[in-house]
Write a structure and sequence with these properties.
With 300 residues, this protein is an alpha/beta fold. It contains 14 helices and nine strands.
Length: 300
């Protein structure tokens, strides 16, 4: 052992013990000195082992995942929540999740389970939710959008004491593999005014063949990965707006989530069945071409 690594007091103890053993002593004194030397050496060994273990590399603390991070803004007026915390709040329904964007943006795409604050109105909101201790999470259009900050501050000024923000907003929510929800009126607006979305029919093939929204692609639950590679989606940019409808909201959401997990992050499911969409009369059902049907995977 390197003597420099041992404390001075220990070196002194060892020197004294060595000196005691070296001197000519009687048998009882020699035995006592030998025991003293052994104790000193044991103490030195224990201290050396302690110093060695203290200097050993400690395991690094686990780093948070992307789902457990926030912007870490300075001088926050209201605290932020992570994506993981928002998902948990939605699953447990432990907080009111408010969309601070204009109502037309909410109709086209919003975090499932959220309420549009503009559509409800602040006064009506305070009447519907009078409990000022209710947990509230506000979001908007991402890190650089001020709507969430402004609406959160407004709610605090009205006396709500547990207001937080998902400042990452809808764009990051979608980028992390979650889908969004659209209303029937949101789909109607896109179809009749903007015409810039890929529309997906998630009903069974027989219903699709009988008539669908003009231009709609057919993608069934479980086909998301294949559709991303074949002619149905391969030629579309992965940032293209995608809106999925079906004969049940569950099936539409299932397909939208599959597409989101296959890099089509701008996917939404429509919270209305096909028959409800037909009643809005913004399209005339059209049968797909035989050549298109021939190219589809053989499914029921």
């Amino acid at each position: 052992m390197n003597s420099r690594a041992v404390p001075r007091c220990l070196r002194l103890t060892r020197c004294k013990a060595h000196a005691a053993v070296s001197e000519p002593l009687g048998e009882p004194a020699a035995q006592s000195a030998k025991a003293l030397a052994e104790r000193a050496m044991c103490s030195a060994l224990l201290i050396a082992m302690t110093l060695s273990s203290a200097g050993a590399a400690q395991p690094a603390p686990a780093r948070p995942s992307v789902y457990q991070t926030t912007l870490e803004e300075r001088d926050q007026k209201t605290p932020e929540v992570t994506t993981e915390q928002l998902r948990l709040a939605l699953a447990k329904k432990s907080a009111l999740v408010l969309d601070a964007r204009p109502r037309n943006q909410y109709a086209i795409a919003h975090i499932p389970g959220s309420i549009n604050l503009e559509e409800k109105g602040v006064i009506r909101f305070t009447q519907s939710y009078p409990d000022r201790a209710a947990s509230i999470i506000v979001y908007s259009n991402g890190p650089f959008c001020d709507w969430a900050r402004q609406r959160a501050a407004e709610l605090v000024s009205l006396g709500y004491t547990r207001v937080s923000r998902y400042q990452l907003g809808l764009p990051i929510w979608r980028a992390l593999g979650q889908t969004a929800e659209a209303s029937a009126h949101g789909l109607r607006h896109i179809f009749t005014n903007e015409n810039n979305a890929v529309i997906i029919d998630a009903r069974n093939r027989a219903e699709y063949m009988a008539g669908t929204i003009p231009g709609a692609e057919s993608i069934l639950p479980g086909e998301g990965r294949d559709a991303a590679k074949d002619r149905r989606l391969r030629f579309y940019d992965t940032n293209a707006r995608i809106m999925v409808f079906a004969d049940s909201v569950e099936n539409a959401r299932m397909v939208a989530e599959e597409l989101a997990r296959n890099a089509y992050s701008n996917s939404s499911y429509v919270s209305a069945k096909y028959e409800d969409l037909k009643r809005l009369k913004f399209f005339t059902p059209r049968k797909p071409s035989p050549s298109y049907l021939d190219s589809l995977p053989r499914r029921p």
